[in-house]
Amino acid sequence: MRYFPPFGASALAALMLLTPGCKDNKETTPAGGGAPAKPAGAKIALLLPESKTSRYESHDRPHFERKVKELCAECEVIYSNADQDAAKQQNQAEAAITNGAQVLVLDPVDAASAAAIVGRARQSKATVISYDRLIAQADLDYYISFDNEKVGKLQGQALADKLKADGKADGTIVVINGSPTDSNAAMFKAGAHSVLDGSGLKIGAEYDTPDWSPDKAQQQMEQAITQLGKDKIVGVYCANDGTAGGAIAAMKAAGINPLPPVTGQDAELAGIQRIVAGEQYMTVYKAIKAEAEAAAELAVALARGGQPPAGKINAKVNNGQKDVPSVLLTPVAVTKDNIKSTIVADGFWTTAQICEGSFQAACAQAQLQ
Prior knowledge:
By secondary structure, this protein is an alpha/beta fold.
């Protein structure tokens, strides 16, 4: 995989200039000449993969839809969630194309089988933006996501550093990866192993978690506890907050106290609350608002017949068939110490949301209130 310089605020601001607002349905000629733009009232499909991970319905969808409407009041967003069913997602994509979608913003359930959706879109001259997860072996137009190997490196480094500080740098850990059908999961895994494999820590058990299911992660952790012994596990690498929640539930049920450091990702509300309460060590915060808005800006520009100006795409990522023009944003490691300066400062979650109910005392101790 080949990366260009990191995507900063200036590049995002520049990308936001790609798309003029839609004022009427007349065709216009782009400033640089060429074919007339498509009518302002274009159709854009947003195809998300699942709802077990709370971010998609609580952040990705609303931010994307709001930004599209802000840029083009007459544009229509055709929204579907596949509920972790690749066949269902293919049907949803077909329906969107039949309904006239000029651009598909597609977060694939299965990175390999989604190539068929790209092929079908090509037949109808629709553009495909691979969103968050990279579609493999396909003639993609664009890819918008985060530096996903860096996500794994942040998780692995945070765990290794914490265990070294605790005097457990040569202890045994459990590794719970993401779904084997998710191309991002493979990148998280590669990034984590690039740190953990040379850290001195011993990986006592490792699992891939179908569908990113917290319930399956809980079962995997139960197996690891039985195999290794509950007193032998010094840390747990979990690829996201959902799997972290499952692993933590298994350890609490087994009577492990205190809990070892556990990693996560996505800054889910439940994950942030566990960090405040001391049950989860860290998560990786990805500015989903910036990701969703960048996707909306690009989608509207493409739906209206435009192209991103040269230099606004900040990376190229190879998906096995081509180097895909990409927008990559930067992830951030979050522990109890920087929740306020990251999650709260960005408005991702408010202190009122984090500190409700039983978390009030822990929030006060963490100086979040």
